[in-house]
Amino acid sequence: MSEIQQRIVIGDSFFGTWVYVDDIGEPIEITQSMEFSSSIELNGNKYPVTLDVLDQTLYRGQIAFFVETNDWERGHAEMDILAVSGIYKKHSPKYCFVVVGGVTP
Q1: What are residue 90's DSSP bridge partners?
Q2: Do 34 and 63 touch, CB atoms closer than 8 A?
Q3: DSSP assignment of 38-96, as one string?
Q4: Domains annotated on the chain, with CATH
Q5: What pairing do the DSSP bridges indicate for beta strands 6-9 and 95-100?
Q6: Taking the CA of residue 53 as centre, how many other CA atoms within 13 Å lie in the half-sphere pointing to its CB?
Q7: 20, 38, 45, 49: which could form a disulfide with 81 (CB 3.0–4.6 Å)?
């Protein structure tokens, strides 16, 4: 985990992209034979991450993710992505962040 962690407020949504790369850091074109999954672990619970493979002609190797935090609780969370192609499986590095409560009216 990094010393400075991003904070996510309960009730917010967040999104971004991952780029699937080879051993030297070049984007790999995502094909139909590849499968990706992701979840967030927070205080022993797993929460879903919506993934969408982007147009590989325009955004080679890119996968968009979207997360909603409505039913979360405070704590330290970790997110990664699992890539599977045939017998090959690989996890991305973990993305760590702190989940905090929002201001209530």
Answers
A1: 83
A2: no
A3: EEEEETTEEEE-EEEEPPTTTSTTEEEEEEE-TT--SEEEEEEEEEEETTEEEEPPPEE
A4: 6-100 (2.60.40.10)
A5: parallel
A6: 16
A7: 38
Query: How big is the CA angle at 4 (ends 64 and 16), to the nearest 5 degrees?
Result: 10
Q: Which amino acid, one-letter code, is at 22? A: D
12-42 tens-digit pLDDT: 999 999 998 888 999 999 999 999 999 999 9
* Dist CA 79 CA 68 (whole Å): 13
Token output for 48: 């879903």
Question: Would you say 69 and 12 are in contact if contact means Cβ atoms under 8 Å apart?
Answer: yes
Tokens, residue 79: 């997110």
Q: What is the pLDDT of residues 57-104, one digit of tens each?
A: 999 999 999 999 998 999 999 999 999 988 889 888 899 999 998 765
